[in-house]
Amino acid sequence: MPFVDSTRPRLALTVGDPAGIGPEIVRAALDDPRSTADCDLVAIGPASARPDGVPTWDGRDGLQLNTLRGAMWLETPCDDDALEVGKVSATGGAAALAALRAATDRCLAGALDGMVNAPVSKEALHLAGEKVEGQTELLGRWSKAPRMQMLAISGPLRVLLLSRHMPLRDALDLITTERVLEHLSILHDGLCELGFERPHLGLAGLNPHAGENGLLGTEDRDVLVPAAEAARAKGLDVTGPLSPDSIFVRGSKGEFDGILALYHDQAFIPTKLLRPDGGMTVLVGMPFVRVSPAHGTAMDVAGKGIARPDNLIESIVQAAEWASLRRARRMRQRTV
Q1: Does one domain contain both 172 and 270?
Q2: Are 56 and 74 in contact (CB under 8 A)?
Q3: What are the mean pLDDT values of the chain's consecutive 10-residue runs (336 residues total)?
Q4: Would you list the DSSP string of 28-88?
Q5: Whether residue 167 sits in one domain with residue 83
Q6: Which Pfam families does this UniProt record tie to the protein (predicted)?
Q7: The CATH number of the domain where 227 resides is what?
């Protein structure tokens, strides 16, 4: 039987690296009624991580999926005998990749509306043979989404990254007028995906005080100002470049719907300071919803029963809201 639209969004919930805290926070999330209040979940990961009472799904039975209410489990391969909890390994990386691929395939097939990903270890992915920065790059490649970018969210602060995981020197070399303009456009379109009608964007400066008109560096004046002017000429609502030491404070108070940061730590230092135990990342420009908690695998506490699922549950709840928005937009388009 083919997959059909349900009245509620259906989301994949991947376990991530099974050597980290993923299995325990996924189990705790499935046990929390908030997780399935507004969506149905297909948890994806090793059979050994499946909680008692959560039925399995073979990944193909459309009738079973179409009648889903609550949660099911799609089992993916993992060599449990070779896995050591709390240790980075190729085994953990391979298991994380299997779950992520299974989720992606079913989102692209239309069986699921999106996914929420428990954390993976980049080192483990490399040991498993996948030489990528992380889940973000894999999902963009598998989904053939060339304009996909990461948006970090911490309460009212939403920050898009101009570059992600790379040495700072390399990231600085990528700050060009063309790339800044392109990413302002991606940020605008991504916020529209999340329900903003005409988002107000802020552009972070590079140098102290955004260069003080060339006194403290010329990059803001020569590279960023032309990008902001070009974005405004295209109809985008952009303010900046603004001093990096103030724009994120203003963003945290709701002055901007989104901010473009120029490198990884410029984005994540303020977002993690604002909510040390919360926050999430969203991939914009994707054909489906993708949300992940901002924390890592926490190998040092894995298996000790002290990892908290709150951030994962928050990510599920938010993903359900955004998936519902996409569903409503799709239904409106069908009636036009």
Answers
A1: yes
A2: yes
A3: 66 97 97 96 97 92 84 97 96 97 96 96 94 85 92 95 91 97 97 94 95 90 97 97 96 97 95 87 95 93 93 96 87 66
A4: HHHTSGGGGSS-EEEEEE-GGGPPTT--EE-S--HHHHHT--SEEEEE----GGG--TTS-
A5: no
A6: PdxA (PF04166)
A7: 3.40.718.10
**Mean per-residue pLDDT of the chain:** 93
pTM: 0.91
Residues 192 and 329 in one domain: no
239 and 131 part of one domain: no
DSSP string of 124-160?
A: HHHHTT--SSSHHHHHHHHHT-TT-EEEEEETTEEEE
Strands across the sheet containing 71-75? 56-57, 71-75, 40-45, 10-14, 114-117, 289-293, 280-284, 149-154, 157-161, 258-261, 200-204, 237-242
How big is the chain, counted in residues? 336
Amino acid occupying residue 313: I
Q: What is the DSSP letter of 258?
A: E
| Main-chain dihedrals φ then ψ at residue 127, nearest 5 degrees | -65, -30
Rounded Cα–Cα distance for residues 175 and 245 (Å)? 19
pLDDT of residue 310: 94
Report the alpha-carbon distance of residue 205 to residue 210 in Å, rounded.
5
What's the total number of domains in the chain? 2
Segment holding 91, helix H or strand E: helix 90-108
